[in-house]
Design a protein that fits this description.
69 residues; mainly alpha
Length: 69
């Protein structure tokens, strides 16, 4: 379920990285190339996003600590 969101975030970051490459003389990448490159790179990003959300869910389900009262 997270793949479209993770892939879009990767595509945006790749495109912006391509824009920053212009500062050192490299050509900018097109938005289409950023989207195509984000398809395979979105898989590990989705896995990391899932781990992060799972950690948030586990933290929310944990019993409160004695020091929180």
């Amino acid at each position: 379920m997270f793949f479209p969101f993770a892939m879009a975030a990767v595509a945006i970051n790749l495109f912006l990285l391509g824009l920053m490459w212009q500062a050192v003389g490299l050509p900018a990448i097109s938005p289409h190339l950023a989207v195509w490159c984000s398809v395979p790179l979105g898989i590990p990003a989705t896995w990391l996003l899932g781990k992060w959300v799972r950690g948030l869910m586990d933290e929310a389900d944990a019993p409160p600590h004695l020091s929180d009262k």
